[in-house]
Automatic annotation (TrEMBL):
Pfam families: Rer1. Involved in the retrieval of endoplasmic reticulum membrane proteins from the early Golgi compartment. This is Protein RER1. Belongs to the RER1 family. It comes from Peromyscus maniculatus bairdii (Prairie deer mouse). One of its GO terms (cellular component) is endoplasmic reticulum.
C-alpha cells in the first residue's frame, strides 16, 4: 500500500474529503467574487454595512478597542497603498528605465497603475472587517486599553501619512482616482452634436 505524496492525498492516492471540501469552498468563493466584480457600488455598500455592524457591536460590547485600532491602521495602510502608483515616480525620476508619470505640461500622458487595484482593496478591506468581527467573539482579544489614546494615535497617524501622500501626489502630479474611460470628440462627433 503506497502513501500519498502530495498535499491533500489520502493513503489510496485520492484527495481526502477535507481537501475536496476546502477546494470546493474556495471555488465557490472565487465564483462569487468573479460575479460581483462588475457591481462596484454594491461591493462598497456591503463593506460599509459590515463596518457599521462591526462598530455597533464594539459599541454595545464596550470592548475590543485594540482590535478596532488594528483594523483602522490596516485600512489606513490599504488606503495609502491604493493611492500609490505601482512604480514610484521618485525612484524613476533620474532613470529612463521604464514608465513614469508625466511631470511637465507637454509630457506624454501615461495612465496611473495603482499598486493596489480597487477590487483587491475592497476584498482585503472586507476580509479585515470579517476577521475583526470574528475576534470580537473571543475574550482573549479584549485587551483592556484606554481608548481615547488609541483614537489620538490614529488621528495623528492619519494626518501624517495622508499629508505625506498628498504632497507626493502634488509633487508628481498624478490623480489616484479614475472616473471611467475618457471620451474624445472627433470631427465626425462634433458634426453630429451640432446637427442634433
Amino acid at each position: 500500500m503506497s502513501e500519498g505524496n502530495s498535499v491533500g492525498d489520502s493513503v489510496h492516492g485520492k484527495p481526502s474529503v477535507l481537501y475536496r471540501f476546502f477546494t470546493r469552498l474556495g471555488q465557490i468563493h472565487q465564483s462569487w467574487l468573479d460575479k460581483s466584480a462588475s457591481y462596484i457600488a454594491v461591493q462598497w455598500v456591503v463593506t460599509l454595512g459590515l463596518s457599521f455592524v462591526y462598530m455597533i457591536r464594539v459599541y454595545l460590547l464596550q470592548g475590543w478597542y485594540l482590535v478596532t485600532y488594528a483594523l483602522a491602521i490596516y485600512h489606513l495602510n490599504l488606503f495609502i497603498v491604493f493611492l500609490s502608483p505601482e512604480v514610484d515616480p521618485s525612484l524613476m525620476e533620474d532613470s529612463d528605465d521604464g514608465p513614469s508619470l508625466p511631470t511637465k505640461q507637454n509630457a506624454e500622458f501615461r495612465p496611473l497603475i495603482q499598486r493596489l487595484p480597487e477590487f483587491k482593496f475592497w476584498h482585503t478591506a472586507t476580509k479585515g472587517i470579517l476577521v475583526a468581527m470574528v475576534c470580537t467573539f473571543f475574550e482573549a482579544f479584549n485587551v483592556p486599553v484606554f481608548w481615547p489614546i488609541l483614537v489620538m494615535y490614529f488621528i495623528m497617524l492619519f494626518c501624517i501619512t495622508t499629508k505625506r501622500q498628498i504632497k507626493h501626489i502634488i509633487k508628481y502630479q498624478y490623480i489616484p482616482f479614475t472616473h471611467g474611460k475618457r471620451r474624445y470628440i472627433g470631427k465626425e462627433d462634433v458634426g453630429k452634436t451640432f446637427a442634433s
